Amino acid sequence: MKRKRLIIGAAAAAAVIAVGVGISGAYLISTPVGMDNDIVVGYDKTEIIEDFDPPSEQKSGAATCYKKKVTVRNTGDTPCYVRMFADFSSGFIRKISYFSYDNADSADPASKTYHSAILTMADGYFIKEVSSDANPHKGWVYIPEAQDGQIGGYYYYTEILEPGEETPPLFTYVKTDYTGTGEDVQQYDVIVYSESVQIVTKDGKSAPDAGETDRYQTVWKEYLG
After folding, report:
1. Which helix or strand (DSSP H or E) is residue 221 part of?
2. Regarding predicted confidence, which is higher, 39 or 223?
């Protein structure tokens, strides 16, 4: 995954540090009125929302599971697309860590279903699927850098996020499992970072065509290109 523009602020708790940053981007939209051209600067802003219940301790040779529900809220005044970066500060920790996307409820975190933090093609790179007729993979999707060098390395929310709305969770629980590693426990950072971009394309379109399911990619590529 890409490691750039990551950390501005951090919050530490117990053995795990959670880092979250929100950065917004905007298009300039030219709207002709009579003989004048009014330039309107769109305003989009997002905020990472976390429900974080850090573990009291980690134990060598055992698994530690804890709640870390991560979503993004549109706090601006325009619809936007959102993407997120999520990773661990240690390559070793990444190898022994897992994400859960189960409901964040009062059940024992250890009872949740977990998936490796290292995504494989077998996972389809989709980590949050909410089917609909228009988009069978509505929700969060990971695009690897090997698949697309321009926009890869991030998790993308495929739907338009309206002002005041909040995405489904990127993940809800984290598990780090030292079983069989022979390694001592270590402190680590869980890094989460979000960016947003307005939904208007360079040709002025503000809505996807019927049946269009990858418009978010078009918008991000135009913005980054």
Report:
1. helix 215-224
2. 223
